[in-house]
Known about the structure:
Blueprint: H1 6-14, E1 34-35, H2 40-43, E2 56-62, H3 68-75, H4 78-83, E3 87-93, H5 96-105, E4 110-113, H6 115-124, E5 130-139, E6 141-145, E7 160-163, H7 169-180, E8 195-198, H8 204-210, E9 215-219, H9 222-228, E10 232-236, E11 247-254, H10 255-260, H11 262-281, H12 283-298, H13 304-312, E12 314-316, H14 322-335, H15 350-358
Parallel strand pairs: 2-3, 2-4, 7-8, 7-9
Antiparallel strand pairs: 1-3, 4-11, 5-11, 5-12, 6-9, 6-10
Amino acid sequence: xxxxxxxxxxxxxxxxxxxxxxxxxxxxxxxxxxxxxxxxxxxxxxxxxxxxxxxxxxxxxxxxxxxxxxxxxxxxxxxxxxxxxxxxxxxxxxxxxxxxxxxxxxxxxxxxxxxxxxxxxxxxxxxxxxxxxxxxxxxxxxxxxxxxxxxxxxxxxxxxxxxxxxxxxxxxxxxxxxxxxxxxxxxxxxxxxxxxxxxxxxxxxxxxxxxxxxxxxxxxxxxxxxxxxxxxxxxxxxxxxxxxxxxxxxxxxxxxxxxxxxxxxxxxxxxxxxxxxxxxxxxxxxxxxxxxxxxxxxxxxxxxxxxxxxxxxxxxxxxxxxxxxxxxxxxxxxxxxxxxxxxxxxxxxxxxxxxxxxxxxxxxxxxxxxxx
Length: 372
């Protein structure tokens, strides 16, 4: 099976090639991510039993609003309710490659993550380390620019545009969009008709304020943070996709954990479906819940002028939007970041569809990329 090109594999899977050489936040508690504040025991109902006798399940997610299902499901105790006395233990990540490493090492069992790290992790392991078992979110990605320097899409040429990381989901999307404009950019160095500056999302607003970048192609809430600093949304990535839908967050699981503990995985998926239903029925309460969990994880809540527009641009869904994942893989191939992958088997939606059917909701499709 084709794999990520050897000269770029380490960059894509470990995320060390940030053009600005700016470090991620210090990762505590383990080699990969920081632990969320643990109040799990308070949420375990009296008399609950462990599923299959398992003490805990380790769940990873990012401190981004595009991971709203994980944020809200944690904050509301919905996952813990479904897991009974099997404790939900959470770790927070800043980048997909580090979460994939944690999944590979067993530091987490299940994770919310973007499509590009999922593709990279699957192809790098020759299809042996993970499965995508559900969807979580669509949208929430924008090109935000300095309106004094960039008046139109054509003006992006020659400018310095930040993306979160070489080979990450937004980086691939921007490189593909730039190529569609007829611009030449070396994917690895980021140099060309437009300069791609790989910068951690937490640092991007400061880089924008200092003038070291002219804009950024970034997920929420970073996009709305830039707007709050005077930036202008020049393009919403949703407008580039059919029906304005594309996968931004999936749920993945270690294949080993899925094989050994399917009942626990099913419980987490029940929690995800229940959380998504509650979010879509109670958007304002859900927005506040997500922000409360962000504050618990990072020590700082989002202000209303960032939270409100960011929340509106994200669609919460159980559907993994599998056909768009295949398209995103094609974009990475065109950018020269990935050899043509065989993604057959990257999905196993059987447990999700079981949960959806039991809840009276529509089942979802794997676009022919499921386990055979």
